[in-house]
Amino acid sequence: KQEVTQIPAALSVPEGENLVLNCSFTDSAIYNLQWFRQDPGKGLTSLLLIQSSQREQTSGRLNASLDKSSGRSTLYIAASQPGDSATYLCAVGPGANSKLTFGKGITLSVRP
Amino acid sequence: GAVVSQHPSRVICKSGTSVKIECRSLDFQATTMFWYRQFPKQSLMLMATSNEGSKATYEQGVEKDKFLINHASLTLSTLTVTSAHPEDSSFYICSAPDRDHGYTFGSGTRLTVV
After folding, report:
1. Do residue A99 and residue B44 have CB atoms under 8 angstroms apart?
2. CA distance B44 to B37
3. Do B93 and A44 touch (CB under 8 A)?
4. Residue B5: CA atoms inside 13 Å, Cβ hemisphere, count?
């Protein structure tokens, strides 16, 4: 059974800091990995999607990497801003339209 | 990109009534829709998976007669909470996979049963 772990559960950093959020998964037979952010009381917003054949994806200040063999992914946020404060979730799926397995998320707080 | 429109965003209903939540895929065909609920400060809990034109598959412990799911077209899936009770108050979110964009989530529905 796939398990996804995100540690720590919460993180507080000063504005401007570069930071790395970690995600690990137990079964390397994944189809893709996706990073989301969730603001309080809102749905999930997709940040980056990494297919199993890819190593990384970039969007603006965000960069996500995937090491399938070791079961790890990282989300790098450059020059963090207070607007980045949210809960960040990673999720993996074994197939194209299959159920996702989520980590419990990392609640990030960026202090002005 | 792929967009899933979810309505209503908030609903308050009386105990014993039914509430319908709609999720529409706006610019892609959603052959599959996942329905989740989320309690405050907790993770998403998958309730059921619906596939267009067939019966939904419910997760263990989810009452299929209480949470009716219909996926009659490639762009619309609905969740009806029947005979709602206060313990059904929660945040409900839908999600559909798209080949190019991964999983797209609706904006969620806050249900309050009074």
Report:
1. no
2. 6
3. yes
4. 8
Share of chain B above pLDDT 70, in %: 100
CB contact A49 to B (< 8 Å): yes
Q: How far is CA B64 from the centre of its chain?
A: 13
Tens digit of each residue's pLDDT (9 = 90 or more) over B50-89:
998 889 999 999 999 999 999 989 999 999 999 999 999 9
Q: Does A102 touch chain B (CB under 8 A)?
A: yes
- How confident is the model over A54-82, as pLDDT tens digits? 999 999 999 999 999 999 999 999 999 99
Structure-block tokens of residue A33: 């990995």
SS3 content of chain A, % helix, strand, coil (to 5): 5, 55, 45
